[in-house]
């Protein structure tokens, strides 16, 4: 679609890429509004992020985490019969596996993103971004969803099934000291 020429004679229209950049320098937050529920199991961050993203991108009701876990793992046990779930159901998995169960493709990248790359995914593509946080000293890995940003302050808006959200945090803190516990952003998941 062409942008109509609405400039006065003698003035040049800004190229579209500069118009986008200018629009993103505002101080107001931009967020997609994905809802990530609290995780029902100790190891179900992947399931909580998955059900939230699947519901947002497919405009369907949020599926119970236990049903997603059962479908992904193929358990014969009823993973929905107790909260918290039985140990046999409370298992780790990968974010891309949970999302695939809902028909969403996620590409894991062994890297972090620049702020401009996150803006491109969130604002231009209107896609949430998954992130894997790795904690030091044998701590568990943890999946979160990056839902938005504040351009003027270089803050991210993050949904976290364990520590709560949505919450704002400086990108540097998100990348190098997540939750004040030394967590490091190690993998990025682009979502198609």
Q: What's the end-to-end separation, in Å? A: 22 Å
Number of DSSP-assigned strands: 7
The CATH H-level superfamily is Cysteine proteinases
Look at the structure and give the CATH class: Alpha Beta
Biggest pleated-sheet summary: 7 strands, antiparallel
* Cα gyration radius (Å): 19 Å
* CATH topology description: Cathepsin B, Chain A
Order of helices and strands: HEHHHEHEEEEHE
- Specify the structural class: alpha+beta
Helical fraction = 25-40%
Which whole number gives the mean pLDDT? Answer: 86
State the helix count: 6
CATH architecture classification name: Alpha-Beta Complex
Describe this protein's structure:
This protein is of the alpha+beta class and 192 residues long. It has one domain: Alpha-Beta Complex (Cathepsin B, Chain A), CATH 3.90.70.10. Helices cover 28% and strands 20% of the residues. The protein is built from six helices and seven strands. It has helices at 16-23, 45-58, 65-73, 95-100, 115-124, 171-176, and strands at 30-31, 106-109, 129-134, 141-150, 155-159, 167-170, 184-191. Strands 1, 2, 3, 4, 5, 6 and 7 form a seven-stranded antiparallel β-sheet that branches. Helix 2 packs across helix 3 (65-73). The chain is globular, with a radius of gyration of 19 Å.
């Amino acid at each position: 679609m062409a942008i109509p020429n609405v400039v006065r004679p003698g003035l040049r229209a800004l190229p579209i890429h500069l118009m986008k950049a200018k629009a993103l320098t505002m101080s107001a937050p931009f967020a997609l509004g994905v809802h990530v529920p609290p995780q029902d199991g100790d190891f179900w961050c992947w399931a909580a992020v998955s059900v939230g993203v699947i519901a947002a991108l497919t405009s369907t009701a949020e599926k119970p985490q236990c049903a997603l876990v059962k479908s992904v793992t193929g358990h014969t046990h009823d993973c929905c019969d107790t909260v918290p779930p039985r140990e046999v159901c409370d298992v780790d998995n990968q974010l891309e596996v949970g999302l695939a169960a809902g028909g969403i493709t996620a590409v894991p990248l062994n890297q972090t993103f620049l702020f401009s790359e996150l803006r491109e995914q969130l604002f231009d593509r209107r896609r949430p971004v998954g992130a894997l946080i790795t904690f030091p000293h044998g701590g568990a890995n943890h999946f979160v969803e990056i839902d938005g940003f504040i351009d003027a302050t270089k803050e991210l808006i993050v949904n976290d099934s364990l520590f709560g959200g949505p919450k704002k945090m400086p990108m540097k803190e998100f990348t190098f000291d997540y939750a004040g516990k030394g967590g490091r952003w190690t993998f990025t998941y682009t979502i198609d």
